[in-house]
Amino acid sequence: MFALSLESIAFTLGPLKVHWYGIILGAAALVGLLLAVREGKRFGLSPDFFMDLVLLGVPSAIIGARLYYVAFKWEEYNDNWLDIFKIWNGGIAIYGAIIGALICGYFYARRKGYGFLRIADICAPGLIVGQLIGRWGNYVNQEAYGGPVEESFLRDTLNLPGWIVDQMFINGQFHHPTFLYESLWNLVGLGLLLVLRRRPFLRAGELLMSYFIWYSIGRFFIEGLRTDSLAFQGPSWFASLIDGLWSPMTAVFTAGDLSADYGNVRISQLVSLVLIVAAVAFIIIRRKTGAANERYSDPIISRKTGLPAGIVVQEAGDEAQAGVASNAADKGSKKE
């Protein structure tokens, strides 16, 4: 049987070590960019618009992801500040990355004169495909895995190839490949978003909300399998509520253990529930109040010019050409 166990370092260039994690994140950002550029062309947005957004958004996402993780693991970094910057060792949180990227996207869209929701809708498939690919960085680093599992479950029940099974052999035992579960969930979500954005009923902002709903549902259930979740000590009734919502998974899976001293409520599960409720409420309230009067398929209007995105540059070009023609005509009449 073919088997492959990867090291975290892809190759070295002198003293420089290039990690697989960075390569995978770079590939994720590139594929997300290509999806956004292709869809943006339908609305007259130039590729440069999204390239600049990625150049700003990727660092913002990484910073947000790291700060989110460090904030909840501060006891590990309080006396080791330099370790905060060692993201190649793992330790970034997806929800932190989303927060960082959305904050950057909001201010970028506003600066360019476009509505944030319209731009976020276009970028939503790029976000989920970025997570789809980025999760394989966890595979290489052997992190963000689930609880212990029998080798036969991975090889025979799930029929996973050897190169995945072998990489899930960590600290003397096999573990659930939660990175794979989430990656496959996001793959289905990508297909769903691509279909939804061509539906005439879709309103502005609702593709982004659909992304939040789909991703959060999967994250809630997959997170329950992990043993390294960020957590806090919450009321026992709330922990029981979370466990009850997760209980359908017990038909096939066993929940990952968390240290009782560390916490009893997984932060990502809590955030997932909040996002699902907030996204559903967002759609319903905007529909009920009439605020959702702009459709996804409508032209994107620049708030600076009042013109559709694809016409802004063209109009400026037409005015310039008209000015040149007028000046030429004036000079011609003077000569005559």
Automatic annotation (TrEMBL):
Main location: membrane
This protein's UniProt keywords: Cell membrane, Membrane, Transferase, Transmembrane, Transmembrane helix
Location(s), subcellular: Cell membrane
Enzyme Commission number(s): 2.5.1.145
GO molecular function, one term: phosphatidylglycerol-prolipoprotein diacylglyceryl transferase activity
Highest rank taxon of the organism: Bacteria
Membrane topology: Multi-pass membrane protein
Ligand binding (a 1,2-diacyl-sn-glycero-3-phospho-(1'-sn-glycerol)): R135
Pfam families on file: LGT
Transmembrane segments: 20-37, 49-72, 92-109, 178-196, 208-225, 267-285
Pathway(s) the chain acts in: Protein modification; lipoprotein biosynthesis (diacylglyceryl transfer)
Family indicated by similarity: Belongs to the Lgt family.
Chain's role: Catalyzes the transfer of the diacylglyceryl group from phosphatidylglycerol to the sulfhydryl group of the N-terminal cysteine of a prolipoprotein, the first step in the formation of mature lipoproteins.
Protein name, entry field: Phosphatidylglycerol--prolipoprotein diacylglyceryl transferase
Species for this entry: Paenibacillus oenotherae
